[in-house]
Specification:
Length: 395
């Protein structure tokens, strides 16, 4: 038995659908969608070429930036899959699609990085020691207390310094600052049980919220616009690299015991992006990344349903449940009815009995051929599974 467990190998997901279990659990996936529209596969079929060009040049380019930053920040993430997907996007400019890169990244996070090996001895706890003010962040040599007391409101420093964010919001993955070390499972447990570290972590969170134009309202994680929201939202809408920071902050909240803080923040950002229109450039990143940092299926479903009610144009909303396949009760009955329709059409249009019989025979033969192809395609679809429903977007 021990050898059986030891020989088990983690199989990485190969499609967006394998990465995303949001809609596959209970009967909530069967609920009627807002507005009475039919459930769709998550791929827009009716996007005009002009809409597609606008989507690539405005929204999806921000996602390209988002993903490229992630590749550069994570030295273990190769660029080749990203470049391949980017090429696919340019070749398929007539429909928006989910990003396999994003789906896989968030899948690994939500499942605690399966098949991940700890990078160092767990007793170093450098992230915890930093938050206990015992060691400074490297390479800048700054202690956490200095950041908490002197950096609040210094938006120029928070914007242009790129070494602190990996220390303030550590993850179990490498960031752009290679001096910062990844969290380990043992360190996460120790951090969550250390009151002083958690207190400072929340203060760091409020500093970043203020930088984005948001304020923390209570200990439950509820948030709202800050007094300076107009200036900060304008800046946030134009500085897409901060979307990567938000993704990191959301992930870190979940790692260090503040999973419940994610939902209020993501809901506010979706509301500003989709309803208020103050962060229009963020809406794709919010839906493709921020929502999927939440580990609970029900919370992701609630956010996506909220977004679907307000997304424009609605036919381009690609995060809805997969379309259900309707299988006829009796395929032979349907085919027989189809042949009867062929008979009626052919006889009705025929100029003579002989011509009618010829038309009937030709169309009946065509129907038989279509039936064969349909059965063959049905077999192929069973082999391929539901991967057909989703394709990767280059970004």
């Amino acid at each position: 038995m021990g050898n059986l467990m030891g020989s088990w190998r983690y199989k990485e997901p190969s499609t967006v659908e394998e990465c995303d279990s949001t809609w596959e659990t209970d009967s909530e996936s069967d609920e009627h969608q807002p507005g009475g529209e039919e459930e769709d596969s998550g791929i827009s079929e009716s996007m005009s070429p002009a809409d597609a060009v606008r989507g690539i040049t405005k929204e999806e380019q921000y996602e390209v930036i988002h993903t490229l930053f992630h590749c550069l920040c994570n030295h273990s993430t190769p660029l080749s899959p990203f470049l391949s997907q980017f090429g696919d996007m340019m070749e398929s400019s007539t429909r928006m699609k989910r990003s396999f890169y994003a789906a896989k990244d968030l899948y690994k996070y939500r499942h605690s990085y399966p098949n991940y090996k700890e990078p160092r001895q767990p007793n170093e706890y450098r992230n915890l020691r930093f938050y206990l003010n015992k060691i400074p962040l490297v390479p800048d040599g700054i202690y956490i207390e200095e950041i908490l007391t002197k950096w609040r409101g210094d938006y120029e420093k928070l914007e242009h310094n790129h070494t602190y964010i990996q220390w303030l919001f550590p993850l179990r993955e490498q960031g752009l600052n290679f001096y910062a070390q990844e969290l380990t499972q043992d360190e996460i447990k120790e951090f969550q049980s250390t009151r002083e570290a958690k207190r400072r972590f929340l203060l760091a969170y409020t500093i970043m919220l203020d930088f984005f134009g948001i304020k923390l309202l209570d200990k439950n994680g509820n948030v709202a616009r800050a007094l300076n929201w107009q200036d900060r939202f304008q800046h946030l809408n134009e500085s897409q690299h901060n979307y990567l920071r938000i993704t990191r902050i959301l992930k870190s909240l979940g790692e260090l015991g503040f999973e419940s803080f994610k939902l209020p923040l993501v809901h506010l950002l979706l509301e500003e992006a989709l309803v208020e229109g103050t962060l229009p450039n963020m809406r794709h990143s919010a839906l493709e990344y921020f929502v999927y940092t939440l580990r609970q299926h029900a919370q992701r479903r609630a956010l996506l349903r909220f977004a679907q009610r307000h997304y424009q144009p609605p036919e381009n909303f690609i995060w809805r449940p997969p379309k259900k396949k309707r299988i006829p009760a009796s395929g032979s009955t349907v085919m027989k009815a189809g042949k009867n329709e062929v008979v009626e059409r052919s006889v009705g249009k025929a100029r003579s009995p002989r011509e009618g019989r010829n038309n009937l025979e030709r169309e009946a033969d065509d129907m038989d051929e279509r039936k064969k192809y349909k059965e063959r395609d049905s077999g192929n679809s069973r082999v391929n599974g539901t991967a057909i429903l989703f394709h990767t977007i280059a970004f």
